[in-house]
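Board notes (copied after class):
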Amino acid sequence: MKMTSLEVLSLSANIELGPDLPSELASLPNLLELDVSFCSFVALPDSLVNDGTIEVLNISGNAITNEGLPTTWTSTALTTLDLSGLIDVMIPFPAAELAELVNLKHLFMRNGALTGSIPSEVGSFAALETLDLERNLLAESLPPELGDVTTLRR
Protein backbone atom coordinates (compact mmCIF):
# COMPACT_ATOMS: atom_id res chain seq x y z
CA MET A 1 0.00 0.00 0.00
CA LYS A 2 1.30 3.43 -0.89
CA MET A 3 -0.83 5.63 1.37
CA THR A 4 2.20 6.71 3.38
CA SER A 5 0.62 9.92 4.76
CA LEU A 6 -2.66 8.35 5.85
CA GLU A 7 -3.27 8.81 9.59
CA VAL A 8 -7.00 8.04 9.99
CA LEU A 9 -8.97 5.44 8.04
CA SER A 10 -12.68 5.08 8.74
CA LEU A 11 -14.59 2.44 6.81
CA SER A 12 -17.37 2.07 9.38
CA ALA A 13 -20.73 0.58 8.33
CA ASN A 14 -19.59 -0.72 4.96
CA ILE A 15 -21.35 -4.04 5.30
CA GLU A 16 -20.11 -5.28 1.94
CA LEU A 17 -16.49 -5.16 3.14
CA GLY A 18 -15.14 -8.47 4.30
CA PRO A 19 -14.78 -11.19 5.17
CA ASP A 20 -11.03 -10.52 5.35
CA LEU A 21 -9.52 -7.42 6.90
CA PRO A 22 -6.28 -6.72 4.98
CA SER A 23 -3.22 -7.33 7.14
CA GLU A 24 -1.34 -4.82 4.97
CA LEU A 25 -3.07 -2.01 6.86
CA ALA A 26 -0.54 -2.55 9.65
CA SER A 27 2.26 -1.60 7.26
CA LEU A 28 0.96 1.93 6.68
CA PRO A 29 3.71 3.92 8.42
CA ASN A 30 1.56 6.77 9.76
CA LEU A 31 -1.79 5.07 10.38
CA LEU A 32 -2.89 6.05 13.88
CA GLU A 33 -6.61 5.33 13.83
CA LEU A 34 -8.52 2.52 12.12
CA ASP A 35 -12.31 2.25 12.33
CA VAL A 36 -13.77 -0.79 10.59
CA SER A 37 -16.80 -1.09 12.85
CA PHE A 38 -20.01 -2.63 11.53
CA CYS A 39 -18.51 -4.17 8.42
CA SER A 40 -18.54 -7.92 7.71
CA PHE A 41 -15.09 -8.98 8.87
CA VAL A 42 -14.72 -12.42 10.44
CA ALA A 43 -11.14 -12.20 11.72
CA LEU A 44 -8.64 -9.66 12.98
CA PRO A 45 -5.14 -10.09 11.50
CA ASP A 46 -2.40 -10.52 14.11
CA SER A 47 -0.35 -7.77 12.46
CA LEU A 48 -2.90 -5.09 13.43
CA VAL A 49 -2.41 -5.70 17.15
CA ASN A 50 1.23 -6.74 17.17
CA ASP A 51 2.92 -4.41 14.68
CA GLY A 52 2.46 -0.95 13.31
CA THR A 53 1.52 2.44 14.62
CA ILE A 54 -2.23 2.07 15.19
CA GLU A 55 -3.25 3.81 18.41
CA VAL A 56 -7.05 3.58 18.07
CA LEU A 57 -8.66 0.39 16.73
CA ASN A 58 -12.43 0.00 16.45
CA ILE A 59 -13.61 -3.37 15.17
CA SER A 60 -16.96 -3.35 16.97
CA GLY A 61 -20.05 -4.82 15.39
CA ASN A 62 -18.28 -7.29 13.13
CA ALA A 63 -18.83 -11.05 12.87
CA ILE A 64 -15.56 -11.90 14.60
CA THR A 65 -15.73 -14.83 16.99
CA ASN A 66 -13.14 -15.98 19.52
CA GLU A 67 -11.42 -18.03 16.79
CA GLY A 68 -11.03 -14.90 14.67
CA LEU A 69 -9.24 -12.92 17.37
CA PRO A 70 -5.43 -12.92 17.64
CA THR A 71 -3.93 -15.10 20.36
CA THR A 72 -1.30 -12.47 21.19
CA TRP A 73 -1.73 -8.72 21.50
CA THR A 74 1.64 -6.97 21.90
CA SER A 75 1.28 -3.56 20.27
CA THR A 76 2.91 -0.79 22.27
CA ALA A 77 1.13 1.86 20.18
CA LEU A 78 -2.45 0.75 20.87
CA THR A 79 -4.19 3.00 23.43
CA THR A 80 -7.87 2.51 22.53
CA LEU A 81 -9.50 -0.79 21.59
CA ASP A 82 -13.19 -1.30 20.86
CA LEU A 83 -14.31 -4.93 20.67
CA SER A 84 -17.96 -4.20 21.43
CA GLY A 85 -20.71 -6.33 19.97
CA LEU A 86 -18.31 -8.76 18.30
CA ILE A 87 -18.74 -12.17 19.68
CA ASP A 88 -21.55 -14.47 18.60
CA VAL A 89 -20.51 -17.18 21.04
CA MET A 90 -20.08 -17.01 24.79
CA ILE A 91 -16.46 -16.56 25.86
CA PRO A 92 -14.63 -15.68 29.07
CA PHE A 93 -13.11 -12.21 29.43
CA PRO A 94 -9.79 -12.31 27.45
CA ALA A 95 -7.65 -10.50 30.04
CA ALA A 96 -4.60 -12.74 29.67
CA GLU A 97 -4.54 -12.15 25.90
CA LEU A 98 -4.86 -8.37 26.26
CA ALA A 99 -2.47 -7.94 29.21
CA GLU A 100 0.51 -7.30 26.91
CA LEU A 101 -1.07 -4.07 25.62
CA VAL A 102 0.96 -2.03 28.09
CA ASN A 103 -0.26 1.37 26.86
CA LEU A 104 -3.95 0.45 26.59
CA LYS A 105 -6.00 3.28 28.13
CA HIS A 106 -9.51 2.60 26.83
CA LEU A 107 -11.08 -0.85 26.45
CA PHE A 108 -14.65 -1.20 25.23
CA MET A 109 -16.24 -4.65 25.23
CA ARG A 110 -19.91 -3.80 25.63
CA ASN A 111 -22.94 -5.52 24.10
CA GLY A 112 -21.21 -8.87 23.78
CA ALA A 113 -21.39 -12.32 25.22
CA LEU A 114 -18.61 -12.18 27.79
CA THR A 115 -19.28 -14.83 30.40
CA GLY A 116 -17.94 -15.81 33.80
CA SER A 117 -16.09 -13.39 35.99
CA ILE A 118 -13.66 -10.58 35.32
CA PRO A 119 -10.28 -12.28 35.83
CA SER A 120 -7.67 -11.02 38.27
CA GLU A 121 -5.28 -10.29 35.35
CA VAL A 122 -7.25 -7.12 34.70
CA GLY A 123 -5.28 -5.67 37.62
CA SER A 124 -2.18 -5.68 35.41
CA PHE A 125 -3.65 -3.13 32.98
CA ALA A 126 -1.53 -0.37 34.48
CA ALA A 127 -2.50 2.43 32.05
CA LEU A 128 -6.22 1.62 31.80
CA GLU A 129 -8.52 4.63 32.26
CA THR A 130 -11.77 3.28 30.76
CA LEU A 131 -13.14 -0.24 31.09
CA ASP A 132 -16.60 -0.57 29.53
CA LEU A 133 -18.15 -4.02 29.97
CA GLU A 134 -21.77 -2.92 29.82
CA ARG A 135 -24.45 -5.41 28.67
CA ASN A 136 -22.62 -8.74 28.88
CA LEU A 137 -23.23 -11.99 30.75
CA LEU A 138 -20.59 -11.50 33.44
CA ALA A 139 -21.24 -13.01 36.86
CA GLU A 140 -19.72 -13.08 40.33
CA SER A 141 -18.06 -10.14 42.03
CA LEU A 142 -15.38 -7.74 40.87
CA PRO A 143 -11.85 -9.02 41.49
CA PRO A 144 -9.94 -7.12 44.21
CA GLU A 145 -7.07 -6.71 41.71
CA LEU A 146 -9.23 -4.25 39.79
CA GLY A 147 -8.43 -1.86 42.65
CA ASP A 148 -4.77 -2.01 41.62
CA VAL A 149 -5.57 -0.11 38.42
CA THR A 150 -5.13 3.34 39.92
CA THR A 151 -5.56 5.07 36.55
CA LEU A 152 -9.10 3.71 36.07
CA ARG A 153 -11.63 6.53 35.83
CA ARG A 154 -14.74 4.83 34.43
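Comment from the instructor: The two ends are 38 Å apart (CA to CA). The first strand starts at residue 8 and ends at 10.
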